[in-house]
Amino acid sequence: MNDLENAVGQYIVYHDVLKKTNPERILYLAVDEEAYEGIFSEPIGKLMLENQRLNLVAFHKLEEVIIEWIPSVNINK
């Protein structure tokens, strides 16, 4: 849970800075498959995805491939 709180906090800071300095860029929080299947399958993670609080990309660490893109409709406005 602490890792999620820290990651989301950093994401918000970077998102706000990018929105001001490079508004055409879209920021994604990258998480490995283990974190994606862990925290984002729990109620708090599902809630964040349902509320579209962040753009998320999940990747396979060893194969170095993206397994899921989850853009947020709300945050990219």
Automatic annotation (TrEMBL):
Transmembrane segments: none annotated. SUPFAM superfamilies: Restriction endonuclease-like. InterPro entries: Restrct_endonuc-II-like, tRNA_endonuc-like_dom_sf, XisH. It comes from the Bacteria. GO terms for molecular function: nucleic acid binding. This is Fatty-acid synthase.
